[in-house]
């Protein structure tokens, strides 16, 4: 049976990314060695890094003065590396959900941290808007898309201080004004790659200002200066970045990714709003186009498990809401298809007709 | 042409590990999804972690009271995490080469560090022996195999204090008395996996004693408590650990890996010692069986480039010595074959016959 992958991450990737990666694992560029066993310092791998960096810069229109680096450890590791590198006196954080809160917590180890705005009081079901941003912050940290709750800042914020964006779950899904940011980082296992690599876009002249001695690997300068080759980088995950970036470019770039995301989200939210069994969980204006969260309406609560089973029988994978929230979550990253979304919508319609 | 892979890391892996990984990337366990796009929290992936941990424990005969965890970032990141977690007052380090020195450097950020012994004065071409180990150390850090210089402690040291071993380049190549260690860690891209995952074996009751507040991701307890699932782990690299550990077990375990390593090394060092063109660089008793380093004898210096070309034409890959040392290095990790070693030896013989 055909599967429709709505996993929140690691998540659906374009089929050609998967097939090309498997092919290169069997024989990398026809050299008679596997992608798994080539040296990261070989003449065969350097072009992978170079083209990946070039494509990321091209696709997101990264201005000069920024570096793109690849790290291991996941975005969670960046929660401590970001303040270690950029917190001089005071940093601001938006508390918009689980991951935002985790980022904020780690920053407190490095200096003064201000919670500039929070939607915790609303159960994170909406986003803060129209808040004041203190002008003396070193940076304002935002989680642009909140994977668990399904809220998303779909535009770059206006801010009197530089932004730092955790874009783990919506990078490459829309054009971004990179010049507003000191750093954009993303655990790449949603829109960019298999799990195992973190992508950072770092403004070079903001590095080296923090008043603390950093371990070599924690200091972003190490990786900028060595072109992500200070130590052995995650070779195969980086290769999957390259393949995915090639796919994004071939499919029209981030402008087209945005159009597709909007279209998918419209179809799915329209059905959620129309169908008597379901309701969206998030304030309409803050709805994520990446993670579409919904629950059964109160009078149909007992149908949650039956609908999950019904959809699973039709090939839906990963539609269970995050364990801290419940209900359903259909993650629609760049690789998600209209076919997948329509299959889910049809399942919702058919299930409704039965009840 | 058949290639013989002598890369120092990432390096040769068993062909069945490569083929099985490629197959699972195309369709994981026949579920209709790629290994690249399954959730790390799915019922499909948990058994991968569980079996990998179980096999590592079985193969290295890990005593109870130890945990096995998987991290990203590489062994270089552990150079700071090790002292962050285990340095209470004073740590000892053996300075046996480039990586050992890097580990020592990072530890100094966290407390008092003693260089217990060093072979820097010998250009790292031998290993320190018969040194005194202060009894008041929290731990003694050793780099069991020095990838760049080709020296190796082939037995666990006797020590009055617990050991911490960077075994990045010789883990799984011999039985180890794990009970002597507080922690064994390894960037897994030599004997255990593709690049992108670090394996740690940690003694549970040594955690949480260091007198400092640790960032969540730096604290090993985070990963022990969450079974390497605090955040998204490197799914595909971990899968390649599983495949490689299955291969090691099927091929007789670490005892047999040791026998094979000794056999390969004997054949290659015998030729180096016999052949008039070459000489080994390392003191005989300290020679690594993983990284076999040699240079042209002084009177044949000008033949270095010609021999490199000669061997390359016969399919040898990765035999250039590390850029900081020069000469040649044939890395013979677990997956290296007698066929590969014999091909290199034959090239050395044939080249000698021409000169």
From TrEMBL, chains A, B:
- Identify the enzyme class: transferase
- Swiss-Prot/TrEMBL cofactor(s): pyridoxal 5'-phosphate
What binding details are noted for the cofactor? Binds 1 pyridoxal phosphate per subunit.
Q: Which SUPFAM superfamilies match?
A: PLP-dependent transferases
**Key words of the record:** Amino-acid biosynthesis, Aminotransferase, Cytoplasm, Pyridoxal phosphate, Pyridoxine biosynthesis, Serine biosynthesis, Transferase
* Reactions the enzyme catalyzes: 4-(phosphooxy)-L-threonine + 2-oxoglutarate = (R)-3-hydroxy-2-oxo-4-phosphooxybutanoate + L-glutamate; O-phospho-L-serine + 2-oxoglutarate = 3-phosphooxypyruvate + L-glutamate
Q: Kindly indicate whether the keyword tRNA processing belongs to this entry.
A: no
Instruction: Tell me which Gene Ontology terms the entry assigns under biological process.
Output: L-serine biosynthetic process; pyridoxine biosynthetic process
Query: So where does L-glutamate get bound?
Result: 41
Which residues, renumbered to this chain, carry the PTM N6-(pyridoxal phosphate)lysine? Answer: 190
Location(s) in or outside the cell? Cytoplasm
Any idea of its EC number?
2.6.1.52
Describe which pathway this protein belongs to, using the record's wording: Amino-acid biosynthesis; L-serine biosynthesis; L-serine from 3-phospho-D-glycerate: step 2/3; Cofactor biosynthesis; pyridoxine 5'-phosphate biosynthesis; pyridoxine 5'-phosphate from D-erythrose 4-phosphate: step 3/5
What GO annotations for molecular function exist for this entry? Answer: O-phospho-L-serine:2-oxoglutarate aminotransferase activity; pyridoxal phosphate binding
The entry marks the following residues as binding pyridoxal 5'-phosphate, namely 75-76, 99, 147, 166, 189, 231-232
Domain Aminotransferase class V span(s) in chain numbering = 4-344
Say where the protein is mainly found: cytoplasm
Q: What domain of life is recorded for the organism?
A: Bacteria
Please give the NCBIfam families that the UniProt record associates with this protein: PRK05355.1
Q: How does it assemble?
A: Homodimer.
* Cross-referenced HAMAP family: SerC_aminotrans_5
Q: Which family does it belong to?
A: Belongs to the class-V pyridoxal-phosphate-dependent aminotransferase family. SerC subfamily.
Primary role? Catalyzes the reversible conversion of 3-phosphohydroxypyruvate to phosphoserine and of 3-hydroxy-2-oxo-4-phosphonooxybutanoate to phosphohydroxythreonine.
Q: Which PANTHER family match?
A: PHOSPHOSERINE AMINOTRANSFERASE (PTHR43247)
Instruction: From the Swiss-Prot or TrEMBL record, give the protein name.
Output: Phosphoserine aminotransferase
Name the gene behind this protein: serC
């Amino acid at each position: 049976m055909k599967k429709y992958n709505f996993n929140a991450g690691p998540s659906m990737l374009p089929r050609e990314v998967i097939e090309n990666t498997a092919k290169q694992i069997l024989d990398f560029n026809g050299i008679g060695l596997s992608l798994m066993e080539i040296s990261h310092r070989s003449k065969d791998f350097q072009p992978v890094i170079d083209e990946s960096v070039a494509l990321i810069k091209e696709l997101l229109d990264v201005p000069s003065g920024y570096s793109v680096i690849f790290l291991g450890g996941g975005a969670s590791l960046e929660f401590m590396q970001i303040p270690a590198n950029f917190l001089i006196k005071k940093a601001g954080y938006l508390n918009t959900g689980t991951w935002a809160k985790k980022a904020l917590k780690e920053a407190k180890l490095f200096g003064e941290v201000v919670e500039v705005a929070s939607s915790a009081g609303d159960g994170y079901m909406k986003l803060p808007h129209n808040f004041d941003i203190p002008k003396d912050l070193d940076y304002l940290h935002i989680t642009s898309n909140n994977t668990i709750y399904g809220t998303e800042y779909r535009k770059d914020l206006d801010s009197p201080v530089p932004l730092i964006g955790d874009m783990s779950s919506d990078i490459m899904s829309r054009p971004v004004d990179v010049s507003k940011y000191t750093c954009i980082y993303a655990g790449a296992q949603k829109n960019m790659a298999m799990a195992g690599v973190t992508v950072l876009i770092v403004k070079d002249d903001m590095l080296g200002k923090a008043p603390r001695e950093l371990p070599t690997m924690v200091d972003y300068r190490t990786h900028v200066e060595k072109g992500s080759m200070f130590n052995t980088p995650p070779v195969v995950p980086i290769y999957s970045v390259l393949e995915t970036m090639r796919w994004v470019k071939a499919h029209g770039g981030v402008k087209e990714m945005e159009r597709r995301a909007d279209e998918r989200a419209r179809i799915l939210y329209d059905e959620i709003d129309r169908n008597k069994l379901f309701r969206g969980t998030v304030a309409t204006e803050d709805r994520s186009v990446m993670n579409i969260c919904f629950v059964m309406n109160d009078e149909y609560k007992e149908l949650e498990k039956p609908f999950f089973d019904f959809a699973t029988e039709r090939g839906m994978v990963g539609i269970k809401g995050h364990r801290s929230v419940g209900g359903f979550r259909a993650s629609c990253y760049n690789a998600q298809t209209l076919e997948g979304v329509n299959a889910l919508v049809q399942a919702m319609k058919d299930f409704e007709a039965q009840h």
